[in-house]
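Chapter summary example.
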Amino acid sequence: MASTKKKAAKAGTGAIAAGKAAKSNPYVQRMIADEDLRENLRTAFESARKAYDRMANGKGPSKALLEDKKTQRELRQAAASLREAAETLRGAGRKRGRKRRGGLLLLLVGAGLAIALSEGLRKKVLDMLFGAEEEFEYTSTTTPQASGSAEPAGAAT
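The structure predicted for these 157 residues follows.
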């Protein structure tokens, strides 16, 4: 009987220590406070459970993964929910930076297409970068040879 009481006491102290560790953990605190994080984790769990149930229905997991569209959709949804939960845990600062990069990339691609497709815009950009083109007339400083004095190469007389 004494050993049962000791085991129960050890289990109780282990649970208390686990509770204290969970209370001081910032991820657990974030889960308690953030409703969106909890919803993303719940959605990921439910989608993964549905996908597992569909794979365990007797067809075999490889066939379910490769051919079953519903299983694929559930797995995609679970992955997306986990990705959102991970981004939430990392912080909101990263998400804002990605939007800015995407907007900047879209702006650069749009500007490149506009320059490539519009001749007038392309000329304006080139004039701004390298200066306006100067019109000039080319005059040769050499005199042309007389055509009667030279024989064509390879002609036999």
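To summarize the output: The CA atoms of residues 15 and 21 lie 10 Å apart.
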